[in-house]
Structure formats: structure tokens, C-alpha cells
Amino acid sequence: MAELTTLARPYAKAAFEYAIGEGELDQWSTMLALTAAITGEEPVQKLLGSPSLTTAQQAQSFVEVCGDALTDQVKAFINVLSENKRLPLLPEISALFDTLKAEQQMSVDVEVTSAFELDSATTDKLAKALTGTLKREVSMTTAVDSSLIGGVVVRAGDTVIDDSIRGKLSKLAEAMNS
């Protein structure tokens, strides 16, 4: 995984710098997400792994699959990736691009898992608290996991806050066994 990130990082940075220079962060993010999704499809993976096609043919076929959803600049980016045999890295490039975008916009995607469905007032209050704690604009999604018993688990990037009953019981069990 680290190797894929290392290979994808220069391409993501280049795309990000171009997009920010042109004021097209959201458009590039959308287009890269589309290309990443298309890359994951089995027929496209076969196309990218085909030894009978040149890199130019692979790029052209890939762009044709995307249809009119890509700008000329993104098509050129796809051609560069193809020439360097890096088209399979598109999912990683898209993820890194979105991370750079979130840092630029001082925002973070947060996933909150709770034992029960949260009402909108609780969700709003939690979002405000997380915005203050993380010092970023919070985009929050919620999920329900009844095995938590009670409380919540918050995931924001690499940060995990486990304030669930199950988590507290696990910590207590570890402390007692130590």
C-alpha cells in the first residue's frame, strides 16, 4: 500500500497544483473520482493489463469509456499516466488528491458510528463540537452499529475517537489482564 502511495503522490500533487491554479479543484476531484471508479471495473482492468495494446491505445480506450465527462486537461493527464504505465494508480491518485483538497479547504470527512440512530439536533451538536476539536470544517456521515451497546465511534482521517461502551469494556478487560 505504501508503495502505491509513493508512486501516486507526484501525480496527485501535480494534478492538485494544476487544479488549484486554474480554480478547478471540485471539477478535478469529480473527474478523478470518476476515473478511479472506472479503473475498478473488471473490463477496464483487463484493458489496462492487455499486452496487445499500446499505452496510447489504452489511454484512448480509457478516455472513450469516460465519454464527455473529462476535460481536455484531464484527458492529457490520463495520457501521461498511460505513457508511464500508471493508469491503475488512479484510485490512489484520486484519494490523495481529495486529501490535499481537504487540507486546502480546511475540511475533513468524519464518520460517526453509534449504537442507535442519532437525531438531527444531536448530529448538529456533535458536528459543532468536532469542528472546534479538529479545527476544520466537518462533513459528517452517520452509521448505526448496535454491537457498540452505547456511545459513539468517531473516525476523522487517521484519528479515531472510541467513546463506545464496547470500547470502554475492551479497555477495562485489557487493564485487568495486564
From TrEMBL:
Keyword Transport tagged: yes
Main location: membrane
One Pfam match: OSCP
Source superkingdom: Bacteria
Subcellular locations according to the entry: Cell membrane; Membrane
MF annotations from Gene Ontology: proton-transporting ATP synthase activity, rotational mechanism
A GO-annotated cellular component: proton-transporting ATP synthase complex
Transmembrane parts of this sequence: none
Keywords: ATP synthesis, Cell membrane, CF(1), Hydrogen ion transport, Ion transport, Membrane, Transport
Membrane topology: Peripheral membrane protein
Role noted for this protein: This protein is part of the stalk that links CF(0) to CF(1). It either transmits conformational changes from CF(0) to CF(1) or is implicated in proton conduction. F(1)F(0) ATP synthase produces ATP from ADP in the presence of a proton or sodium gradient. F-type ATPases consist of two structural domains, F(1) containing the extramembraneous catalytic core and F(0) containing the membrane proton channel, linked together by a central stalk and a peripheral stalk. During catalysis, ATP synthesis in the catalytic domain of F(1) is coupled via a rotary mechanism of the central stalk subunits to proton translocation.
Family, similarity comment: Belongs to the ATPase delta chain family.
PANTHER family registered for this protein in UniProt: ATP SYNTHASE DELTA CHAIN (PTHR11910)
Protein name: ATP synthase subunit delta
Source taxonomy: Bacteria, Pseudomonadati, Pseudomonadota, Gammaproteobacteria, Cellvibrionales
